[in-house]
């Protein structure tokens, strides 16, 4: 696919005149072609107006047609071939193996949402039978969910495929029946253009209404801001920094009509190393931890950035293993030079904190754009008294907080702000303590793991990739898995509608053979 | 029950020192006893801190115990006897028959939520089986929903029982597992105190943790504001004016940790009189409309404040019937003198609008605190050009908008802002036009009715008492019906937890016999 650097606005390519820029290779190399043109605010308006005009037709297409569109996007992504992961590799520095598996995940995610649409899970139909003999009589009441309207998506830097132009936000919004306008992440414009063209082709091939999808490059922040403020936009998906997420959230709230903004922002993903587990397998846990810490150069939302454990010989065995493993793992590229710069500043801050010591990792890596795993250590008293120690340092770093007793461990848990995940390594002898921690962790995190590592987020029904503030802007939702679609839907109740006027999902005959809640019970009736 | 005018803070009664006030009877009469004491901000802090301390114990009680508490509230409300509707009658002016049925609805609502809790609908359990042979293997992933935390509820003036201290917001939040702090509405403090004492007694009798419920009187706005701002509060339910709802919403958004505020604010509930239906039964529709308009002195959220129809003889028949019926209905008391004052100002504004004529109703009622039904008339061109004609006038008034053709009717529909309901009166010959309107109305309203009247909101699974901005602050939710509970819950995913540590709702053996989504399909397995 030949890149042009143009915007995608519905079925039209157009050159953005809001400032030219080049892609930056993660390794610092030159990427002269193409010149990307940033959008201007009139492009935002054009894309949003087109999305609004496409909305009613798009949302009323049959489930089958909408599902076919989602699957066609996956096919068009695969049809690009290796050029897509290769471009993503150059732009992000992520390894090819990771990017081809991320591509598979992206395609699988589209297929999952296609299946949900066919099953009517987006509509979640509910039927309550009339009670004509009751006093007062009860009417015939039915409910389904309909899409909110056009959705803006802000692609993430750390997943150029699975959390970007055709990632989870886009797939779930399109599945819900919402047109999507993506603001491409400036760290991978070429990857974004390729993916956007794939969606454009899929939309044309499956005869979707023009405007169901657009993608804009942005040379500065004004485009993203204009998108969040545009009256046609009814919800926003964002994955990125806390600072960026909160700024956009405040804009979305300040609109004359406030709209939901789903920001997945930051998390340090605490890992509790319980004593019996450490005693039984300190070395094994340490090896798994070192691998989890350095996966994707530590640039995963669920990177294990905090360890909590009791002092003692088992913990020293754990730490010694980490200290011996980390230097054997070669430093790997970070996504951008800016991210690498922030990483080094964060590591420097920790290194100069008198209450923190560096206990594992290669000696001050300064290789161009690369980072290796680092482990710092402090004690619970220091952690509890210094809020800066809870700040996320985006990259392969973690802080071990050593506690004197369970009470202190519990205090550390209670002290934490909202997280995407919390992990416990434990053995049956640790269950009593785990029972004391679990109620605290449920309030702190969206996902609780046992004897596993938080990196690796499965796309399935039960997944929650979300969590209390400030890990996300809305703890009631997930940005990964089936329930991501719920973010873009609202319920409508139909009272006494004649069969002829009811939507197919609610007709008495159940022509789509959907699972429906009927008089309180799930049934798949005929 | 002897009223004391004291606050309810957990199991303690305490006199508010933030300003004394008396209840005002709707008919203007004196209500000297008791003197109510408004809370001070330290009372807010005490109640919120107690709620927070009760939360973890309360949310972890068995479903059976939580359900028993909800049912006990209903029993304690009934145990007050007629003193409760009698007091509500004096304070609100609403008829006794309406208040005894509202009491029944309040109790039924508590029972409904008790049943939902027993069925585990609040937890909505999801199980995805592990796939150990897949590459990479999939972990064991399960999900349930847990409550958000302490909830603040602002009681409504127009339903002193069903949308107030023990109303839908309180019942659904308690059912979700959230402690509740109610700010009592100043229009019915005695009714509020009685109901709060009933909840307090139910909590004591069923041995709930102290702090699961509190009720505060407020002498001014500072108490409500302090409640919305308090860091322990994790969600807010509000029913009231648009101005009040938006002001509190902005406060909730501006917190360091933003929290959801569910405000149900205002709606004029458009009713479309389609031509074949008018032709067939103009008089019958008119009679039903006049009854719906004047129910509760028009002070229902779903009052039919807007009629849209084509000009012609059938419409004149409709209008003539309304004009002959309305004067036969005696004016009834409004909730407060302030509401009556606003009503008269609103009616005056419409009466002086040169593009509006008054076509039905008694000649300028000026009876103390009372209002009778009024119908105004304008044309579509005037309605489309004057935004003030879309303002809600709270009370038994409605505006008939006469359209020249279907195109104009559709323009009126598209012009509307978000509504709780939209109604169509139609016959089969009207279906083609209805098909043109329905997609517009779905985007405008939370509930669509055919050949029915919007007043009367059923408490059931399919109900949506909500709608797009500005009818509510969050179109994704309902404040009436089973799904009201969803507002106070968030999902948590459990990855690889041993059976011993899983919550009962997620154990493999399904000991609570719940319906669960397992590998994509609803099952009630053993």
Overview of this protein structure:
Two copies of one chain form a homodimer. Chain A has 526 residues and is α/β, with parallel strands linked by helices. Chain A folds into two domains: 7-265 and 477-487, 3-Layer(aba) Sandwich (Aldehyde Dehydrogenase, Chain A, domain 1); 270-450, Aldehyde Dehydrogenase, Chain A, domain 2, CATH 3.40.309.10. Chain A has 14 helices and 23 strands. The first copy, chain A, has helices at 41-59, 63-79, 83-92, 96-118, 168-176, 189-205, 222-229, 242-254, 275-294, 313-325, 337-352, 380-385, 406-415, 431-444; strands at 7-9, 12-14, 20-21, 36-37, 126-128, 141-147, 151-154, 180-183, 213-216, 235-239, 261-264, 270-273, 306-310, 332-333, 357-361, 370-371, 374-379, 397-403, 419-425, 445-450, 489-495, 516-518, 521-523. In chain A, the strands form five sheets. A seven-stranded mixed β-sheet of chain A has the order 2-1-9-8-7-10-11, with helices on both faces. The relative contact order of chain A is 0.13. Chains A and B meet through strand 5, strand 6, helix 14, strand 20 and strand 21 of A and strand 5, strand 6, helix 8, helix 14 and strand 20 of B.
Short description:
Two copies of one chain form a homodimer. Chain A is of the alpha/beta class and 526 residues long.
Overview features:
homodimer, about 525 residues, alpha/beta, Aldehyde Dehydrogenase, Chain A, domain 1, Aldehyde Dehydrogenase, Chain A, domain 2, 2 domains, seven-stranded mixed beta sheet, 14 helices, about 35% helix
């Amino acid at each position: 696919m030949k890149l042009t650097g143009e915007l995608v606005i519905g079925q039209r390519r157009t050159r953005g005149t809001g400032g030219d820029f080049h892609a930056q290779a993660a390794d610092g190399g030159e990427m002269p072609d193409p010149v990307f043109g940033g959008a201007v605010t009139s492009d935002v308006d054009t894309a949003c107006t087109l999305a609004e005009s496409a909305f009613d037709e798009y949302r009323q297409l049959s489930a089958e047609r909408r599902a076919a569109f989602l699957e066609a996007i996956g096919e068009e992504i695969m049809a690009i071939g290796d050029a897509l992961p290769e471009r993503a590799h150059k732009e992000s520095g992520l390894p090819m193996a990771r990017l081809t598996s991320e591509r598979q995940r992206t395609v699988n995610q589209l297929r999952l949402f296609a299946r949900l649409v066919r099953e009517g899970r987006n509509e979640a139909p509910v039927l309550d039978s009339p009670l004509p003999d009751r006093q007062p009589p009860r009417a015939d009441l039915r409910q389904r969910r309909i899409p909110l309207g056009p959705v803006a998506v802000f692609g993430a830097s750390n997943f150029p495929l699975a959390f970007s132009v055709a990632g989870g936000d886009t797939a779930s919004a399109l599945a819900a029946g919402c047109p999507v306008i993506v603001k491409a992440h400036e760290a991978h414009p070429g990857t974004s253009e390729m993916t956007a063209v794939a969606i454009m082709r899929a939309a044309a091939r499956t005869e979707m209404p023009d405007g169901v999808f657009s993608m804009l490059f942005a040379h500065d922040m004004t485009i993203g801001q204009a998108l969040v403020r545009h009256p046609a936009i009814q919800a926003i998906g964002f994955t990125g920094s806390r600072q960026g997420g909160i700024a956009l959230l405040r804009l979305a709230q300040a609109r004359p009509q406030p709209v939901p903004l789903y920001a997945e922002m930051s998390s340090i993903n605490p890992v509790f190393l319980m004593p019996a587990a450490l005693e039984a397998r300190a070395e094994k846990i340490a090896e798994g931890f070192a691998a989890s810490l350095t996966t994707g150069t530590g640039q995963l939302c669920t990177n294990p950035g905090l360890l909590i454990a009791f002092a003692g010989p088992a913990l020293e065995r754990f730490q010694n293993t980490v200290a011996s493993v980390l230097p054997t793992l070669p430093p790997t590229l970070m996504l951008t030079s800016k991210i690498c710069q922030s990483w080094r500043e964060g590591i420097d801050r920790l290194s100069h904190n008198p209450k923190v010591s560096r206990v594992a990792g290669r000696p001050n890596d300064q290789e161009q754009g690369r980072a290796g795993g680092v482990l710092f250590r402090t004690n619970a008293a220091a952690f509890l008294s210094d809020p800066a120690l809870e700040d996320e340092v985006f990259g392969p770093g973690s802080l071990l907080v050593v506690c004197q007793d369970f009470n202190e461990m519990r205090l550390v848990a209670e002290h934490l702000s909202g997280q995407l995940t919390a992990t416990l390594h434990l053995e049956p002898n640790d269950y009593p303590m785990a029972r004391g921690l679990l109620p605290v962790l449920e309030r702190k995190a969206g996902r609780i793991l046992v004897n596993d590592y938080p990196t690796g987020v499965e796309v399935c029904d039960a997944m929650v990739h979300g969590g209390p503030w400030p890990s996300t802007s809305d703890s009631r939702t997930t940005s990964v898995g089936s329930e991501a679609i719920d973010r873009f839907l609202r319920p409508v109740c139909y009272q006494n509608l004649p069969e002829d006027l009811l939507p197919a999902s609610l007709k008495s005959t159940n022509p789509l053979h959907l699972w429906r809640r009927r008089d309180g019970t799930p049934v798949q009736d005929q």
